[in-house]
Amino acid sequence: MNNTVSKLLLGKKREPQALSAESFAPANIALCKYWGKRDSALNLPLTSSLSISLGEKGANTRISVLDSAESDVVILNQERLAEESSFVKKLSAYLDLFRDVSDRFFQVETTSNIPVAAGLASSACGFAALIKALDKLYAWELDQKALSILARLGSGSACRSLWNGFVEWDRGQCMDGLDSHGYPLEVQWPELRIGLLIFEPLPKKISSRMAMEHTVQTSPFYKIWPIVVEEDLLKLKRAIKAHDFETFGSVAEANALKMHALMMTAKTPIVYGSPKTLEAQHRIWDCRHQGLAVYFTQDAGPNLKLLFLAKDLDTVKQGFPELEVIAPFGESA
Ligand code: PMV
């Protein structure tokens, strides 16, 4: 058990209190990106970041205690994953953090309604759902902040998947990371829409963990990234509060482009976009040129997430018929 875990679970039960437990967590899309760690074992970021959760899009995870098993069993979207797969190894290493002396193994069954590992934050909602399910299984009754810190140990961005709506991840200052967690912004924006433009629902070529490390170490521009993020975060939070969509969209889009520009200047360069990504970006810029307020953001994959308002849904859909539209605050607007 690492230090963070033992501090948070001090005085809590060390034996499962049920045979299985289940929980759901939404996926989240970063509007101001997390790109770079100050501690890679604890997933402590170099900067704060800000996201929007995707409501009903996310992961549902059931964790069950296995009797007399020799390893964990991981089932993803009804398919049992090979023990040697990197996903299973990552998950088992995470479960090791919580395993009691009796070396208990688990079955983790996750159903995700978003493409896995296509840069759509699937690992984030997976780890958030898993820690919530573990909390139920052991009856720890941890608060959201503690769950966010523990989710972060699985995947950094998972710490933002504990809430709906806008969530800021405060980078924190402490070495043990107990002050590095998400918290929700108390702002609703029912008119906001997110469109998933999925060209390639395939696993990404380079993990975000490796790509981040490589960028921090080799991009000559990385040193300005924390300054960029500080400015973008402030602008985004103001725009969200004022429901100023054009500022919101343009700052989020520019932030994503700056993150990808950093990666392109790494040695050797990392390019997550495909020709389809670039073609869609041009289509979006053309739409804007014609007066339509639509913006995009992009994570560690080729797919894009469009940002627009409910009033423009029909026009945006005409331009992008393949779009899957999400209303992060519900369908009321
Ligand atoms: O938490 P990770 O290791 O999956 O990294 C997430 C990285 C980005 O999605 C590109 C940015 C972010 O803030 O979510």
Q: Level of helix content?
A: 25-40%
Question: Helix/strand-derived class?
Answer: alpha+beta
Q: Output the number of helix runs.
A: 9
What number is the mean pLDDT? 93
Instruction: Tell me the major beta sheet.
Output: 7 strands, mixed
Rg for CA atoms = 20 Å
Order of helices and strands: HEEEEEEHEHHEEEHHHHEEHE
Any ligands, ions or cofactors bound here, and which? Answer: (3R)-3-hydroxy-3-methyl-5-(phosphonooxy)pentanoic acid
Give the assembly state of these chains. single chain
Give the overall form. globular
Stretches where pLDDT falls below 50 for ≥5 residues?
A: none
Describe this entry's structure for a reader:
With about 325 residues, this protein is of the alpha+beta class. Helices cover about 35% and strands about 25% of the residues. The protein is built from nine helices and 13 strands. The chain has helices at about 5-10, 85-95, 120-140, 145-155, 210-220, 225-240, 245-265, 275-290, 315-320, and strands at about 20-30, 35-40, 45, 50-65, 75, 80, 105-110, 165-170, 180-185, 190-195, 295-300, 305-310, 325. Strands 1, 4, 5, 6, 7, 8 and 9 form a seven-stranded mixed beta sheet that branches. It has a four-stranded antiparallel beta sheet with strand order 11-12-10-13. Strands 2-3 form a two-stranded antiparallel ribbon. A hairpin with a 4-residue loop joins strand 2 (about 35-40) and strand 3. The chain is globular, with a radius of gyration of 20 Å. (3R)-3-hydroxy-3-methyl-5-(phosphonooxy)pentanoic acid binds near residues 33, 121 and 157.
